[in-house]
Amino acid sequence: MTAKCTVTKKCGGCQYQGIPYQEQLKRKQKQEETLLKKFCKVEPIIGMENPYYYRNKVHSVFDRDRRGNVISGIYEANTHHVIPVENCLIEDQKSQEIIRTIRQMLKSFKIKTYDEDTGYGLLRHVMVRRGFQTGEIMVILVLGSPILPSKNNFVKALRKAHPEITTVILNVNDKKTSMVLGEWEKPIYGKGYIKDRLCGCTFRISPKSFYQVNPVQTERLYQTAIEYAGLTGKETVIDAYCGIGTIGLVAAKYVKKVIGVELNKDAVRDARMNAKDNKITNVEFRQGDAGEFMVKMASQGQKADVVFMDPPRAGSDQKFLASVVKLGAEKIVYVSCNPVTLKRDLEYLVKCGYEAKRIRPVDMFPFCDHVETVMLLTQHLA
Ligand code: SAH
Fold this sequence. Notes:
By secondary structure, the chain is of the alpha/beta class. It has helices at 8-11, 21-36, 93-108, 151-161, 215-229, 246-251, 265-277, 290-299, 318-327, 339-351, and strands at 57-64, 70-75, 82-84, 123-130, 137-143, 165-172, 185-189, 194-198, 201-205, 236-240, 257-262, 283-287, 306-309, 331-336, 354-362, 372-379.
């Protein structure tokens, strides 16, 4: 099946739209080889069997067209002009259906869409997150102000159309910003979070917590990372940039102890609850900047055997990397969503005596030009 997207040129989200999937994989493999093969051989990219509708998080911005009809979709690349999207080929279909339902409900509930320039109107964005393994669904209504008129009836009507929805959250974003979610949030139905399962563990996910958007490939990503680490049960392991604790909690049963560090407070709260829910007791999670945390650990003379690190696209920083070296970690498993910053960080680590042993790209983002990489470095013992 080669499905066709009708808004690809305007959207710009899928740089590889129109290119056969096997060809996309080849290009990504080549890109990784060009950047990284001087460090070590690049193993074959792990692709998807079915590369469509893989995104578990769907965001839609709401607006009106020139005739005043409600539209929902995405911003045209580099603008705040909204392009209606009916069927995105990479986003979860059930979540897209929910967004269509909300669009149709606005008129009868007399809810106006938010105007970014004037601040007039109410509904600005809708975000839907679905646990692919649990089926739990979170709907976040991002508003310009905190009152949703007839909210109980709104939830009732929405759940009547989609009984799978397990929680509905109001979020307020009244700022001129390209961030979707604002600070304030309040559940108006359900618990305010969803759960999902990965690699045999259950994870609770709050609205602002990071969770990998392609859960099918995430299992393969984590399995590769844990296989690379070659764990024996004796290790003290750091899970840096740990989000809701996924990598560390999945690895916990193969090691002595896991210490996770993460900046986002909501994610750290989720990580701690996740340890409890999965009855994992050999883990602890710290909130703060990963670099600062590592500097502190190193200055106290603490040691770690393995460091899993999964930084955002900007990569890590020298403070962090220098401390990894100081902690004497024998192995580093670097999970990267940006091969350019990976290469930069790698050059530093190689200078400090680490050697690249294995590299494997994982296709987390079919049709997009982003590539995810797992990499093993070991300390080069003279
Ligand atoms: N390993 C997790 C999360 C990876 S995403 C997973 O696989 O789900 C990167 C995470 O780094 C995000 O949760 C983000 O909040 C966090 N982060 C960003 N900058 C950070 C910093 N300076 N220190 C610690 N965590 C940071």
